[in-house]
Amino acid sequence: MRHLLDTRTLTRDDAIRILDVAEDMADTQEREVKKLPTLRGRTVVNLFFEDSTRTRISFEAAAKRLSADLINFSAKGSSVSKGESLQDTAQTLEAMGADAVVVRHGASGAPRTLASSGWIDAGVVNAGDGTHEHPTQALLDAFTMRRRRYGASSRGRDLAGYRVTIVGDVLHSRVARSNVWLLDALGAEVTLVAPPTLVPQDVTRWPATILFDLDEAIAAAPDALMMLRIQTERMTGSFFPNEREYARLWGLDPVRFRALPSDTIVMHPGPMNRGLEICAEAADSARATVLEQVANGVSVRMAVLYLLLAGEQAGTDSKENR
Question: pTM above the 0.90 mark?
């Protein structure tokens, strides 16, 4: 695997390979000594042009547990804030000997530009680009679903027939986009639920069913219900009347939570807006996977870095590089 830029180009076999390696990584995290010598001597750069807590720290933990040398680069307070271009920043990292660059950027397509420009020879991981994709988040979500479904016998399995409902601000959500393509590759059935104003225009091309009524979606008894954060920072207009109205129509309140089948898991990519898209009862229940997703994120990102920096030995590749 040369780069991980999206989930749309991942095949079923690609995805299962990553998830299976993540299982191996998760097993190592149960040991007393969690650190592995696997990437000793390699340099991983976290290149974040947008604020992040969970994703940045998760990649940092993943790199360190694989014994890689880590450089954290934040755009704020750096030369980028003084006007330095992406090209100049990339060439600086190349001069430092970066082997892998984990990129979060506000512009959709920035990681692909970095990977295909020739400015840098390092492998590139997309840690979220604009409203485009966030592939490692989708992978950790699928990893969490697979573990909840199959338990210890997850390896080699896909999510065929698994019903996943994703609710909320689909328009601005790179998490939703990455999940739709990955879950489809793994055989899952995806339903998107949102206000009409928060559904992308090109959604008819997506492998998903579109609904506008959350109660109708809950009545269909999904296996997993994923609530999305309302991304007010990306909104330039009024997409719904007010927060109270949104919570009433599209929030997972206590009544809706109790209407879910007892085996439906409740997911959220974080950070959560309690009382808006999800109630405390749901967020704190045993069926909520929020903290599992955070823990699983480290294992998944360890797997991605391992496959990126030891790709030949791992024997895996994606469709775009064949």
Answer: yes
